[in-house]
Amino acid sequence: MERDERVQILKDLIKINSANGNEIEVANYLKKLFKEHGIEAKIDAFGDRRANLTFDLGRGDKVLGITGHMDTVAIGSGWQHDPFASEIEGDKLYGRGTADMKSGLAAQVIALIELFEAHKINGHIRFIATAGEEYGTPGANRLEKSGIAKDLDALLVGEPTGGNVVYAHSGSYNYRITSAGQSVHSSEPERGVNALEGLVDYCLVERALFDDVKPDPYLGNIKHTVTIFNAGEQVNTIPDKAELRGNIRPTRVFNNDQVTARIKEAVEKLNQEQAAKLSFEILNDWWPVASDPDSEFVQSVLKDSQETFAKYPDHPTPELRTINGATEASVFVKHQQNLPVIVLGPDEWSVAHKVDEYTTISSYLAIIETYKQVIQHYFD
Protein backbone atom coordinates (compact mmCIF):
# COMPACT_ATOMS: atom_id res chain seq x y z
CA MET A 1 0.00 0.00 0.00
CA GLU A 2 1.02 3.59 -0.50
CA ARG A 3 1.59 5.78 2.55
CA ASP A 4 -1.68 7.71 2.14
CA GLU A 5 -3.71 4.49 1.95
CA ARG A 6 -2.07 3.19 5.12
CA VAL A 7 -2.89 6.42 6.95
CA GLN A 8 -6.45 6.51 5.60
CA ILE A 9 -7.20 3.07 7.03
CA LEU A 10 -6.18 4.28 10.47
CA LYS A 11 -8.23 7.46 10.06
CA ASP A 12 -11.25 5.38 9.07
CA LEU A 13 -10.94 3.26 12.22
CA ILE A 14 -10.61 6.32 14.44
CA LYS A 15 -13.81 7.79 12.98
CA ILE A 16 -15.75 4.76 14.24
CA ASN A 17 -16.89 5.36 17.81
CA SER A 18 -16.18 2.08 19.59
CA ALA A 19 -15.87 3.45 23.12
CA ASN A 20 -16.63 0.46 25.34
CA GLY A 21 -18.75 -1.12 22.61
CA ASN A 22 -19.86 -1.02 18.95
CA GLU A 23 -17.04 -3.32 17.82
CA ILE A 24 -19.41 -4.72 15.19
CA GLU A 25 -18.90 -1.59 13.07
CA VAL A 26 -15.11 -1.93 13.28
CA ALA A 27 -15.38 -5.65 12.48
CA ASN A 28 -17.57 -4.97 9.44
CA TYR A 29 -15.09 -2.39 8.17
CA LEU A 30 -12.16 -4.79 8.59
CA LYS A 31 -14.02 -7.74 7.05
CA LYS A 32 -14.77 -5.65 3.95
CA LEU A 33 -11.17 -4.43 3.77
CA PHE A 34 -9.76 -7.94 4.05
CA LYS A 35 -12.17 -9.24 1.40
CA GLU A 36 -11.02 -6.54 -1.02
CA HIS A 37 -7.55 -8.02 -0.67
CA GLY A 38 -8.57 -11.67 -0.96
CA ILE A 39 -8.74 -12.60 2.74
CA GLU A 40 -11.90 -14.09 4.23
CA ALA A 41 -12.43 -13.07 7.85
CA LYS A 42 -15.12 -14.36 10.22
CA ILE A 43 -17.18 -12.09 12.45
CA ASP A 44 -18.34 -13.51 15.78
CA ALA A 45 -21.18 -11.20 16.85
CA PHE A 46 -22.57 -11.82 20.33
CA GLY A 47 -25.23 -9.18 20.83
CA ASP A 48 -25.47 -5.52 21.82
CA ARG A 49 -23.20 -4.58 18.87
CA ARG A 50 -20.29 -6.54 20.34
CA ALA A 51 -18.19 -8.66 17.97
CA ASN A 52 -14.86 -10.40 17.46
CA LEU A 53 -13.15 -10.94 14.11
CA THR A 54 -10.76 -13.81 13.32
CA PHE A 55 -9.11 -15.69 10.46
CA ASP A 56 -6.22 -18.04 9.75
CA LEU A 57 -3.65 -17.63 6.99
CA GLY A 58 -1.04 -20.08 5.73
CA ARG A 59 0.00 -23.49 6.98
CA GLY A 60 2.63 -25.02 9.19
CA ASP A 61 3.32 -26.78 12.46
CA LYS A 62 3.86 -23.53 14.38
CA VAL A 63 0.98 -21.08 14.89
CA LEU A 64 1.72 -17.39 15.48
CA GLY A 65 -1.17 -15.48 17.01
CA ILE A 66 -1.55 -11.77 16.27
CA THR A 67 -4.08 -9.97 18.42
CA GLY A 68 -5.54 -6.51 19.00
CA HIS A 69 -8.76 -5.06 20.38
CA MET A 70 -11.34 -2.97 18.54
CA ASP A 71 -12.80 -1.02 21.47
CA THR A 72 -11.51 2.11 23.17
CA VAL A 73 -12.03 3.69 26.57
CA ALA A 74 -14.73 6.33 27.08
CA ILE A 75 -14.26 9.66 25.31
CA GLY A 76 -13.95 11.96 28.32
CA SER A 77 -14.17 15.75 28.18
CA GLY A 78 -11.86 18.67 27.50
CA TRP A 79 -10.64 17.67 24.05
CA GLN A 80 -8.96 20.32 21.87
CA HIS A 81 -9.24 17.96 18.89
CA ASP A 82 -12.44 16.22 17.80
CA PRO A 83 -11.98 12.65 19.13
CA PHE A 84 -13.47 11.17 15.94
CA ALA A 85 -12.25 13.57 13.23
CA SER A 86 -8.81 11.96 12.79
CA GLU A 87 -7.15 15.38 12.73
CA ILE A 88 -3.50 15.52 11.70
CA GLU A 89 -1.02 18.14 12.90
CA GLY A 90 2.52 17.53 11.76
CA ASP A 91 3.44 13.95 12.64
CA LYS A 92 0.56 13.51 15.12
CA LEU A 93 -2.83 11.97 14.35
CA TYR A 94 -5.35 12.75 17.09
CA GLY A 95 -8.41 10.81 18.20
CA ARG A 96 -9.80 8.43 20.78
CA GLY A 97 -8.04 5.11 20.37
CA THR A 98 -5.20 6.36 18.19
CA ALA A 99 -2.62 4.95 20.62
CA ASP A 100 -4.71 2.33 22.42
CA MET A 101 -4.92 0.63 20.13
CA LYS A 102 -6.32 1.34 16.69
CA SER A 103 -2.88 2.28 15.37
CA GLY A 104 -1.53 -1.11 16.43
CA LEU A 105 -4.64 -2.83 15.07
CA ALA A 106 -4.43 -1.05 11.72
CA ALA A 107 -0.70 -1.81 11.50
CA GLN A 108 -1.39 -5.52 12.07
CA VAL A 109 -4.11 -5.49 9.41
CA ILE A 110 -1.94 -3.75 6.84
CA ALA A 111 1.10 -5.93 7.55
CA LEU A 112 -0.95 -9.09 6.97
CA ILE A 113 -2.56 -7.76 3.80
CA GLU A 114 0.78 -6.68 2.33
CA LEU A 115 2.48 -9.99 3.17
CA PHE A 116 -0.47 -11.95 1.76
CA GLU A 117 -0.52 -10.03 -1.50
CA ALA A 118 3.26 -10.40 -1.83
CA HIS A 119 2.94 -14.18 -1.26
CA LYS A 120 5.19 -13.90 1.81
CA ILE A 121 3.02 -15.72 4.35
CA ASN A 122 5.51 -18.44 5.18
CA GLY A 123 3.76 -20.09 8.11
CA HIS A 124 0.46 -20.42 10.01
CA ILE A 125 -0.91 -17.10 11.29
CA ARG A 126 -4.06 -16.56 13.35
CA PHE A 127 -5.44 -13.04 13.52
CA ILE A 128 -7.63 -12.28 16.55
CA ALA A 129 -9.42 -8.92 16.86
CA THR A 130 -11.46 -8.72 20.04
CA ALA A 131 -14.28 -6.85 21.75
CA GLY A 132 -14.24 -5.30 25.19
CA GLU A 133 -10.57 -5.36 26.18
CA GLU A 134 -10.97 -2.08 28.05
CA TYR A 135 -13.77 -3.37 30.27
CA GLY A 136 -14.11 -7.00 31.28
CA THR A 137 -12.61 -8.70 28.16
CA PRO A 138 -15.88 -10.41 27.10
CA GLY A 139 -14.61 -10.97 23.57
CA ALA A 140 -11.28 -12.52 24.53
CA ASN A 141 -12.90 -14.69 27.19
CA ARG A 142 -15.45 -15.92 24.67
CA LEU A 143 -12.73 -16.82 22.19
CA GLU A 144 -10.47 -18.42 24.81
CA LYS A 145 -13.33 -20.67 25.92
CA SER A 146 -13.78 -21.74 22.29
CA GLY A 147 -10.15 -22.89 22.21
CA ILE A 148 -8.74 -20.25 19.88
CA ALA A 149 -5.45 -20.05 21.80
CA LYS A 150 -4.91 -23.70 22.65
CA ASP A 151 -2.58 -24.42 19.71
CA LEU A 152 -0.71 -21.10 19.61
CA ASP A 153 3.07 -21.29 19.76
CA ALA A 154 3.58 -17.54 20.28
CA LEU A 155 1.47 -14.40 20.50
CA LEU A 156 2.09 -10.83 19.31
CA VAL A 157 -0.05 -8.13 21.00
CA GLY A 158 -0.30 -4.70 19.35
CA GLU A 159 -0.68 -2.43 22.40
CA PRO A 160 1.29 0.86 22.43
CA THR A 161 4.93 0.42 23.47
CA GLY A 162 6.77 3.04 21.40
CA GLY A 163 8.50 0.27 19.49
CA ASN A 164 9.89 -1.18 22.71
CA VAL A 165 9.57 -4.94 23.11
CA VAL A 166 7.59 -5.81 26.22
CA TYR A 167 8.36 -9.41 27.13
CA ALA A 168 6.52 -9.62 30.46
CA HIS A 169 3.62 -7.97 32.24
CA SER A 170 1.78 -8.57 35.46
CA GLY A 171 -1.73 -9.90 35.71
CA SER A 172 -4.64 -7.95 37.08
CA TYR A 173 -6.90 -9.45 39.71
CA ASN A 174 -9.98 -7.67 41.10
CA TYR A 175 -11.96 -9.02 44.02
CA ARG A 176 -14.75 -8.12 46.44
CA ILE A 177 -15.23 -8.99 50.10
CA THR A 178 -18.65 -8.44 51.65
CA SER A 179 -19.38 -8.35 55.36
CA ALA A 180 -22.72 -9.17 56.99
CA GLY A 181 -23.84 -7.63 60.30
CA GLN A 182 -26.97 -6.75 62.25
CA SER A 183 -28.39 -3.25 62.18
CA VAL A 184 -29.41 -1.48 65.41
CA HIS A 185 -29.52 2.06 66.72
CA SER A 186 -26.04 3.44 67.32
CA SER A 187 -26.95 4.23 70.95
CA GLU A 188 -26.94 0.48 71.63
CA PRO A 189 -24.17 -0.94 69.40
CA GLU A 190 -23.72 -3.97 71.68
CA ARG A 191 -27.12 -5.28 70.52
CA GLY A 192 -26.05 -5.39 66.89
CA VAL A 193 -23.12 -6.49 64.71
CA ASN A 194 -21.20 -3.77 62.91
CA ALA A 195 -20.42 -5.06 59.40
CA LEU A 196 -17.60 -2.55 59.15
CA GLU A 197 -15.49 -4.27 61.78
CA GLY A 198 -14.88 -7.42 59.79
CA LEU A 199 -13.69 -5.42 56.80
CA VAL A 200 -11.44 -3.24 58.94
CA ASP A 201 -9.85 -6.40 60.34
CA TYR A 202 -9.31 -7.67 56.81
CA CYS A 203 -7.70 -4.38 55.73
CA LEU A 204 -5.20 -4.65 58.57
CA VAL A 205 -4.36 -8.21 57.51
CA GLU A 206 -4.17 -7.26 53.83
CA ARG A 207 -1.34 -4.79 54.43
CA ALA A 208 1.07 -7.66 55.12
CA LEU A 209 -0.75 -10.46 53.32
CA PHE A 210 1.91 -10.91 50.63
CA ASP A 211 5.02 -9.75 52.49
CA ASP A 212 6.62 -13.21 52.26
CA VAL A 213 6.25 -13.46 48.47
CA LYS A 214 9.60 -13.45 46.67
CA PRO A 215 10.13 -10.86 43.91
CA ASP A 216 9.53 -12.05 40.37
CA PRO A 217 12.77 -11.95 38.31
CA TYR A 218 11.02 -9.96 35.57
CA LEU A 219 8.13 -8.17 37.30
CA GLY A 220 9.44 -7.50 40.79
CA ASN A 221 7.19 -7.47 43.86
CA ILE A 222 3.51 -8.34 43.73
CA LYS A 223 1.37 -5.16 43.87
CA HIS A 224 -1.77 -5.17 46.03
CA THR A 225 -4.13 -2.68 47.59
CA VAL A 226 -7.71 -2.13 48.75
CA THR A 227 -9.23 0.53 46.52
CA ILE A 228 -12.97 0.75 47.35
CA PHE A 229 -14.71 0.67 50.75
CA ASN A 230 -18.47 1.07 51.14
CA ALA A 231 -20.62 0.82 54.26
CA GLY A 232 -23.44 2.50 56.13
CA GLU A 233 -26.29 4.75 55.08
CA GLN A 234 -26.98 6.75 58.24
CA VAL A 235 -24.61 8.00 60.93
CA ASN A 236 -26.79 6.89 63.87
CA THR A 237 -27.36 3.34 62.62
CA ILE A 238 -25.01 0.35 62.87
CA PRO A 239 -24.44 -0.90 59.31
CA ASP A 240 -25.63 -4.43 58.59
CA LYS A 241 -23.67 -4.79 55.35
CA ALA A 242 -20.41 -3.51 53.97
CA GLU A 243 -18.07 -4.29 51.11
CA LEU A 244 -14.59 -3.57 49.87
CA ARG A 245 -12.83 -4.15 46.60
CA GLY A 246 -9.17 -4.71 45.97
CA ASN A 247 -6.76 -4.95 43.06
CA ILE A 248 -3.72 -7.20 42.88
CA ARG A 249 -1.05 -7.51 40.18
CA PRO A 250 -0.04 -11.18 40.22
CA THR A 251 3.33 -12.33 38.88
CA ARG A 252 4.63 -15.61 37.52
CA VAL A 253 6.26 -16.25 40.92
CA PHE A 254 2.92 -15.78 42.70
CA ASN A 255 0.09 -16.33 40.24
CA ASN A 256 -3.67 -15.87 40.31
CA ASP A 257 -4.46 -19.26 41.85
CA GLN A 258 -2.00 -18.58 44.68
CA VAL A 259 -3.54 -15.14 45.23
CA THR A 260 -6.99 -16.74 45.50
CA ALA A 261 -5.80 -19.31 48.00
CA ARG A 262 -4.08 -16.65 50.15
CA ILE A 263 -7.17 -14.40 50.33
CA LYS A 264 -9.50 -17.32 51.04
CA GLU A 265 -7.24 -18.40 53.89
CA ALA A 266 -7.24 -14.91 55.40
CA VAL A 267 -11.03 -14.60 55.15
CA GLU A 268 -11.65 -18.02 56.67
CA LYS A 269 -9.29 -17.24 59.55
CA LEU A 270 -11.10 -13.97 60.34
CA ASN A 271 -14.46 -15.72 60.17
CA GLN A 272 -13.27 -18.33 62.66
CA GLU A 273 -11.20 -16.26 65.05
CA GLN A 274 -13.04 -12.93 64.98
CA ALA A 275 -16.56 -14.25 64.34
CA ALA A 276 -16.64 -12.15 61.19
CA LYS A 277 -19.12 -12.94 58.43
CA LEU A 278 -17.02 -12.26 55.35
CA SER A 279 -17.64 -13.55 51.83
CA PHE A 280 -15.03 -13.47 49.08
CA GLU A 281 -15.69 -13.10 45.33
CA ILE A 282 -13.35 -12.85 42.32
CA LEU A 283 -14.46 -10.10 39.93
CA ASN A 284 -11.76 -10.25 37.26
CA ASP A 285 -8.94 -12.72 36.83
CA TRP A 286 -6.26 -11.78 34.29
CA TRP A 287 -3.02 -13.76 34.37
CA PRO A 288 0.59 -12.55 34.19
CA VAL A 289 2.61 -13.31 31.07
CA ALA A 290 6.35 -13.64 30.61
CA SER A 291 8.79 -14.68 27.91
CA ASP A 292 12.49 -15.36 28.38
CA PRO A 293 14.17 -12.07 27.35
CA ASP A 294 17.17 -14.05 26.10
CA SER A 295 15.07 -16.37 23.94
CA GLU A 296 15.46 -16.42 20.16
CA PHE A 297 11.91 -15.12 19.76
CA VAL A 298 12.36 -12.06 21.96
CA GLN A 299 15.80 -11.21 20.63
CA SER A 300 14.63 -11.55 17.02
CA VAL A 301 11.69 -9.19 17.62
CA LEU A 302 13.97 -6.69 19.34
CA LYS A 303 16.39 -6.73 16.41
CA ASP A 304 13.55 -6.22 13.92
CA SER A 305 12.15 -3.27 15.89
CA GLN A 306 15.55 -1.65 16.32
CA GLU A 307 16.40 -1.98 12.64
CA THR A 308 13.07 -0.52 11.53
CA PHE A 309 13.04 2.40 13.98
CA ALA A 310 16.64 3.24 13.06
CA LYS A 311 15.15 4.63 9.83
CA TYR A 312 13.20 7.14 11.96
CA PRO A 313 15.92 9.08 13.85
CA ASP A 314 13.40 11.12 15.87
CA HIS A 315 12.37 7.95 17.73
CA PRO A 316 14.45 6.41 20.54
CA THR A 317 16.09 3.05 19.93
CA PRO A 318 13.69 0.29 21.05
CA GLU A 319 14.59 -1.62 24.22
CA LEU A 320 13.38 -4.62 26.17
CA ARG A 321 10.77 -3.62 28.76
CA THR A 322 8.26 -4.99 31.27
CA ILE A 323 5.01 -3.32 32.38
CA ASN A 324 2.58 -3.68 35.28
CA GLY A 325 -0.48 -3.20 33.10
CA ALA A 326 -2.34 -6.18 31.66
CA THR A 327 -3.33 -7.05 28.08
CA GLU A 328 -5.61 -9.64 26.53
CA ALA A 329 -2.67 -12.00 26.51
CA SER A 330 -3.67 -12.44 30.17
CA VAL A 331 -6.79 -14.20 28.92
CA PHE A 332 -5.15 -16.24 26.17
CA VAL A 333 -2.48 -17.69 28.50
CA LYS A 334 -5.04 -18.90 31.03
CA HIS A 335 -4.67 -22.52 29.91
CA GLN A 336 -1.21 -22.17 28.40
CA GLN A 337 0.76 -20.19 30.96
CA ASN A 338 4.16 -20.68 29.29
CA LEU A 339 3.03 -19.25 25.95
CA PRO A 340 5.71 -16.83 24.65
CA VAL A 341 4.14 -13.37 24.39
CA ILE A 342 5.45 -10.10 22.98
CA VAL A 343 3.68 -6.73 23.32
CA LEU A 344 4.77 -4.34 20.59
CA GLY A 345 3.09 -1.29 19.08
CA PRO A 346 3.52 2.36 18.09
CA ASP A 347 3.94 5.24 20.52
CA GLU A 348 3.98 5.14 24.28
CA TRP A 349 1.60 3.60 26.81
CA SER A 350 1.63 7.00 28.57
CA VAL A 351 -0.52 8.70 25.90
CA ALA A 352 -3.24 6.04 26.01
CA HIS A 353 -6.62 6.92 27.59
CA LYS A 354 -5.77 10.62 27.77
CA VAL A 355 -7.64 13.61 26.42
CA ASP A 356 -6.23 14.50 22.98
CA GLU A 357 -4.83 11.00 22.62
CA TYR A 358 -2.59 10.67 19.58
CA THR A 359 -0.27 8.46 17.63
CA THR A 360 2.67 9.62 15.55
CA ILE A 361 2.34 8.67 11.93
CA SER A 362 6.05 7.88 11.77
CA SER A 363 5.85 5.29 14.57
CA TYR A 364 2.70 3.83 12.99
CA LEU A 365 4.45 3.36 9.65
CA ALA A 366 7.52 1.95 11.42
CA ILE A 367 5.43 -0.62 13.28
CA ILE A 368 3.83 -1.84 10.04
CA GLU A 369 7.29 -2.65 8.68
CA THR A 370 8.33 -4.14 12.02
CA TYR A 371 5.33 -6.47 12.08
CA LYS A 372 6.12 -7.66 8.58
CA GLN A 373 9.68 -8.49 9.58
CA VAL A 374 8.62 -10.15 12.84
CA ILE A 375 6.11 -12.40 11.08
CA GLN A 376 8.55 -13.54 8.41
CA HIS A 377 11.47 -14.03 10.79
CA TYR A 378 9.37 -15.99 13.26
CA PHE A 379 8.83 -18.74 10.72
CA ASP A 380 12.37 -18.53 9.33
β content, as a range?
15-25%
Helix content: 25-40%
Largest sheet: 6 strands, mixed
Mean pLDDT: 96
Largest sheet, spatial ordering of strands: 1-2-6-3-7-15
Number of separate structural domains: 2
Q: Termini distance?
A: 24 Å
Quote the CATH topology of the largest domain: Aminopeptidase
CATH superfamily of the largest domain: Zn peptidases
Global structural class? alpha/beta
Oligomer: single chain
The total count of helices amounts to 9
CATH architecture type of the largest domain? 3-Layer(aba) Sandwich
Poorly predicted runs of 5 or more residues: none
Using only C-alpha atoms, the radius of gyration works out to 23 Å
Query: How do the helices and strands follow one another from N- to C-terminus?
Result: HHEEEEEHEHEEEHEEHEEHEHEEH
What overall geometry do the principal axes of the alpha carbons give? elongated
Task: Reconstruct the topology from this structure.
Blueprint: H1 3-15, H2 23-36, E1 42-45, E2 51-57, E3 63-69, E4 88-89, E5 92-94, H3 98-117, E6 124-130, H4 138-145, E7 154-157, E8 165-169, E9 172-180, H5 195-206, E10 223-231, E11 241-249, H6 256-273, E12 278-286, E13 289-290, H7 296-309, E14 320-323, H8 329-332, E15 341-343, E16 358-360, H9 361-379
Parallel strand pairs: 3-6, 3-7, 7-15, 8-14
Antiparallel strand pairs: 1-2, 2-6, 4-5, 5-16, 8-13, 9-11, 9-12, 10-11
Helix pairs in contact: 1-3, 3-9, 5-6, 7-9
